[in-house]
Amino acid sequence: MAKTRSVYACNECGAQQPRMLGRCPECGAWGSLGEEALAPSVLPAEAVAGTGNKPVALGEVEIRDLPRLASGIGELDRVLGGGAVPGSVTLLGGEPGVGKSTLGLQVAGRVQAGGRKVLYVSGEESPAQIRLRADRLDEVPGEIRLLAETRVEALLRHWEELAPDLVLIDSIQTMHCDRVESAPGSVAQVRESAALLAAAARRTGAALLVIGHVTKDGALAGPRLLEHLVDVVLGFEGDRDRAFRLLRASKNRFGSTQEVGVFRMDTAGLAEVENPSEHFLAERSEGAPGSCIVPLLEGTRPLLVEVQALVAQAAYGMPRRTCMGIEDGRVALLLAVLDRRSDVDVASRDVYVNVAGGVRVGEPSADLALCLALASSRLDLAIPPDVAVCGEVGLGGEVRGVARLDLRVREAARLGFRRVLTPPAAGDEPESLNCERVPISNVADAAQWLLAEHARTET
Ligand code: TYD
Ligand code: MG
């Protein structure tokens, strides 16, 4: 008789081991391995027995425009590359409370309003709860089919029967299927449920949107394997306490991963933000020392945000350094550079840094702006309100080039900035821009520029 074999799968990364271990050798997590019965996966068997395709010459493959199921939510459709492709699987990941279910319901509403059929499967909320949420949102048609179900086999029956154009699963971590014995949310369950659902999407031609929770450090909870199984991986980011949300594609088989969608969480659901720069600059305090505007780039989209710094006399003991929206290490590095390479003395002072609006800055192109914000606060001299600043700063204090300076300068010009401090290496941008470029070669020059600017306006 054949023995039932087990494997031990890591709940963090999904890697499988032949025996029980205290620590996952792949990702290093402790105590994350759990036993699973080894069941044959659906996919290979289907793929082998399935279609009977023959090899074809690459040159003879016909290219058709992919049909798209556009949701009508511009910010989402752009990230998807024009809309979801029928038969494709999209994974929408995000931390709890960021607004995944809200976005899902809004998409469902728009698609249903466009005359298509939508099936919304929830394993987390009851239909009554979903109805309550729908009432908060504008225009969610009553015809959307809700299904409270966590068993994949059961929901597949309704899926076949209804033949919807769009199926939403909220969330994959609550789903389970009969052929796997482990608990919902475990690696094996999530993987097999997702495989069954993906196979159904391919078979029926419905677009499938699967919601998944991510852990604090941003990984999809449980198996990273899910990312291989789906066609599009979207990440929904943002502070739960702030309105601002960013939607990014980290994988897209049908489009670019360079697009980002920008949303605002309102009392009536998520609203599209077409001009994010204007949104972030709306609350800006002009003429306050320590504030500096930087044109960031999210994908191919320029985004003007305000970096704020406050340098204060340290009361006693170790100086405090508190950073929000920007990595502590980067701020520490720039403080050291500023201290050593310019006349601005920031050593042994309390330093607070904040990026307005809850944006997270990951790009080094904000370095120079942060240095200037620090210098501005320390010297108590405001940066003129018509100036934006952009450039990476090296350890020698030198200012380095950034990607797509042209896009950034153009966005600054569009929003009325008349001068942009940039790295010295000149790119070519249209002359017609009503915006002057001020080349800055190092942080000492940047501080000098600020002093000279104030000396000039005072006389
Ligand atoms: P939700 O979509 O449930 O998040 P997720 O599915 O990602 O866990 O919504 C998260 C938060 O959004 C919730 O705390 C309340 C808030 N919210 C609004 O501010 N406005 C709204 O119109 C809705 C529906 C929710
Ligand atoms: Mg939810």
Walkthrough of the structure:
With 459 residues, the chain is an alpha/beta fold. It folds into three domains: 5-40; 69-273, Rossmann fold; 279-458, Ribosomal Protein S5, domain 2 (2-Layer Sandwich), CATH 3.30.230.10. The protein has helices at 42-49, 74-80, 100-113, 127-136, 152-162, 187-204, 225-229, 276-281, 328-341, 367-379, 405-414, 443-458, and strands at 6-10, 16-17, 33-37, 89-94, 118-122, 145-148, 166-170, 207-213, 232-237, 244-252, 260-266, 269-272, 291-298, 301-313, 321-324, 349-355, 387-389, 392-393, 399-400, 419-422, 436-439. The strands form five sheets. A nine-stranded mixed sheet has the order 6-5-7-8-4-9-10-11-12, with helices on both faces. A four-stranded mixed sheet has the order 13-14-16-15. α9 (328-341) crosses α10. It is elongated and about 80 Å long. The structure holds thymidine-5'-diphosphate (TYD) and magnesium ion. Magnesium ion binds next to α3. Thymidine-5'-diphosphate (TYD) binds next to α3 and α4.
Notable traits:
single chain, 459 residues, alpha/beta, Rossmann fold, Ribosomal Protein S5, domain 2, 3 domains, four-stranded mixed beta sheet, 12 helices, 29% helix, 24% strand, elongated, binds thymidine-5'-diphosphate, binds magnesium ion
Q: What is the fold's blueprint, element by element?
A:
Layout: E1 6-10, E2 16-17, E3 33-37, H1 42-49, H2 74-80, E4 89-94, H3 100-113, E5 118-122, H4 127-136, E6 145-148, H5 152-162, E7 166-170, H6 187-204, E8 207-213, H7 225-229, E9 232-237, E10 244-252, E11 260-266, E12 269-272, H8 276-281, E13 291-298, E14 301-313, E15 321-324, H9 328-341, E16 349-355, H10 367-379, E17 387-389, E18 392-393, E19 399-400, H11 405-414, E20 419-422, E21 436-439, H12 443-458
Parallel strand pairs: 4-8, 4-9, 5-6, 5-7, 7-8, 15-16, 17-20, 20-21
Antiparallel strand pairs: 1-2, 1-3, 9-10, 10-11, 11-12, 13-14, 14-16, 18-19
Helix pairs in contact: 9-10, 10-12
Bound molecules: thymidine-5'-diphosphate and magnesium ion.
The site of magnesium ion (MG) has 4 residues, from helix 3.
